[in-house]
Design a protein that fits this description.
This protein has about 240 residues and is of the alpha/beta class. It has five helices and twelve strands. About 30% of the residues lie in helices and about 30% in strands.
């Protein structure tokens, strides 16, 4: 049966607030699954796809290293950049204005129970989105996310970072596609813990600003296609 995924745009939001909201949706779904496993009437789990932009922030994955942040806490505060150690996979990355961030909260038991496949599907969504702009996104072996020219050490650059968490097959966290992102923020970290590859954006590759809403709509269309689901705008409240 085709799954319904409810989308909601949170707008520009502080990272911790978005994290808390994601976690509340995950906890709601996992609680239902626990009750259902006990034979109780708990109702169906619900899929969500949240979009947002964050205020400038560095986030560290659970397998990351703090030394990949190259500036002091004092400098972070001076530059009004947040910092969060998180429970997602991956290492250090940056989130900020001009970046399309997507947080799918999916019950994978209604799709497939394979985290690797899930990450490949997310990569496919972004690769299809980039194709609209004539950009060939690709995978880099052993490195999650979407890259340009990953096979060329001199030119390899990352355009979309990914990191997820899964509890009882319910996902949270997700992807961050650099659209009009100020890439200077990446100079103060070792992006994704990979020192020998660069970071890029749609704006840098195309030479002009890109409409953020257009990118979001393309991602929605491609998410529907890749996950064979039905996207529904979440009701307010």
């Amino acid at each position: 049966m085709q799954q319904a995924v409810y989308i909601k745009n949170l707008g520009i939001i502080e990272y911790g607030e978005a994290w808390h909201f994601q976690d509340s949706l995950l906890q709601e779904n996992t609680a239902k699954k626990i009750r259902l496993a006990k034979g109780e009437d708990a109702g169906e789990t619900r899929h969500h796809l949240l979009f947002c932009e964050h205020l400038p922030v560095y986030t560290l994955g659970k397998s990351g290293k703090e030394e990949h942040v190259l500036i002091s806490k004092e400098e972070l505060a001076k530059r009004n950049i947040g910092y969060y150690p998180t429970n997602r996979g991956g290492d250090i990355t940056f989130h900020g204005p001009g970046q399309v961030v997507g947080y799918p909260i999916l019950d994978l038991e209604k799709f497939f129970t394979d985290i690797g496949k899930y990450l490949r599907y997310l990569e496919d969504v972004i690769i299809l989105t980039l194709l609209h702009y004539g950009i060939k996104g690709d995978r880099s072996p052993g490195e999650t996310g979407v890259w340009l020219d990953p096979g060329n050490k001199m030119k390899a650059r990352k355009i979309c970072a990914m990191g997820v968490r899964c509890s009882r097959w319910v996902t949270m966290h997700g992807f961050a596609l650099n659209v009009n992102t100020d890439l200077n923020y990446f100079n103060s970290i070792v992006p994704c813990g990979i020192p020998d590859k660069q970071v890029t954006s749609l704006q840098k590759e195309l030479g002009h600003d890109v409409d953020m809403e257009e990118v979001r709509q393309l991602i929605i269309k491609n998410f529907e296609k890749v996950f064979a689901c039905r996207i529904i705008v979440a009701p307010e409240g």
